[in-house]
UniProtKB/TrEMBL annotation:
Source species, domain of life: Bacteria
Entry-linked InterPro entries: Isoprenoid_synthase_dom_sf (IPR008949), Polyprenyl_synt (IPR000092), Polyprenyl_synt_CS (IPR033749), Prenyl_diphosphate_synthase (IPR053378)
High-level lineage: Bacteria, Pseudomonadati, Myxococcota, Myxococcia, Myxococcales
GO BP terms: terpenoid biosynthetic process
Family named by the database record: Belongs to the FPP/GGPP synthase family.
Gene Ontology MF terms: metal ion binding; prenyltransferase activity
Species whose genome carries this gene: Corallococcus sicarius
Protein's name according to its UniProt entry: Polyprenyl synthetase family protein
Record-linked Pfam families: polyprenyl_synt
């Protein structure tokens, strides 16, 4: 069976996401927005990156519709997911959390604009995500807003961040799995499900997206933890070893490097199986699952 060529797919989809984000750049900061705030929001949103979450959203929309993803609701869903992801990075980098100086090879938002404005730029990105998602006549937009809000909220990404900084966090696999299903996995699951919802997919497709997103979300985080101890700062575009310095528990620290890699491979296999009914043979979703652990940055 031929192996799907991911590189050209990723380049085209990443370029599509960049174009969609730039199309919405003027709307990102509505009339009356202080210019410096608008600049800070755009600085992080348009800084590039893997764009994995919006690419997954577009790929699932393609898989269930077998048509173009150039509909407004699909495009808005993909952009809204990236707004929320970017806000989370801006806040994660702040001195009160990860205290990072670099993100995607550039100075972090607070290093350029100062801590107060970086905090508010993140707030702006989060709220504008829902402006983008809710603006339009399609009834499905309400479901998409609810999906994204659950993933970003107290029982999702924010709650996972709280578990990550808790003083009494346990150095156990169960705790790590719970933490990262919330902190990293919730938004990846939502991106997959939102692609299905936006394209009019059925309950079975939503189930496939749920299983796939859960597996890829965990695999992606395990790969991040592995890269943090095996890659260089130049490869990653950000400092390495920050988790260990902060006393946080990672998959390699808790279960070992080789077991972490085995877990990631098993999760990729689960993700590939979940989307086989949608793709048949090897396709972009299966290839994206492999990419989540084979990447070098």
């Amino acid at each position: 069976m031929a192996v799907f060529e991911l590189d050209p797919f990723m380049r085209s989809r990443q370029a599509r996401v960049e174009a969609l984000l730039r199309e919405r750049a003027d709307r990102l900061a509505p009339a009356g927005t202080p210019p410096r705030l608008a600049e800070a929001m755009r600085y992080s949103l348009l800084a590039g990156g893997k764009r994995l979450r919006p690419v997954l959203c577009l790929a699932f929309a393609d898989a269930v519709s077998r048509a173009s993803t150039d509909t407004a609701v699909v495009a808005d869903a993909a952009c809204a997911v990236e707004y929320v992801h970017t806000y989370s990075l801006v806040h994660d980098d702040l001195p009160c959390l990860d205290n990072d100086d670099l993100r995607r090879g550039k100075p972090t938002n607070h290093k350029v604009f100062g801590e107060p404005l970086a905090l508010l730029a993140g707030d702006g990105l989060l709220t504008e995500a829902f402006t983008v998602l809710a603006t339009g006549p399609e009834p499905v937009r309400g479901l998409l807003c609810a999906e994204l809000a659950r993933a970003a909220g107290a029982a999702g990404m924010v709650g996972g961040q709280v578990l990550d900084i808790a003083q009494d966090r346990a150095a156990t696999l169960d705790y790590l799995l719970r933490l990262h299903r919330m902190k990293t996995g919730a938004l990846i699951r939502a991106a997959c499900r939102m692609g299905v919802l936006a394209a009019g997919g059925d309950v079975a497709a939503l189930g496939s997206a749920e299983t796939y997103g859960d597996a890829v979300g965990l695999a992606f985080q395990i790969a991040d933890d592995v890269l943090d101890v095996t890659a260089s700062a130049e490869q990653l575009g950000k400092p390495v070893g920050a988790d260990a310095e902060a006393g946080r528990h990672t998959f390699p620290a808790v279960v070992g490097l080789e077991e972490s890699r085995r877990m990631a491979r098993d999760l990729v296999a689960r993700a590939e199986a979940a989307v086989r009914p949608l793709e048949g043979g090897d396709g972009p979703l299966a290839a994206l699952a492999r990419y989540s652990v084979e990447r070098t940055s």
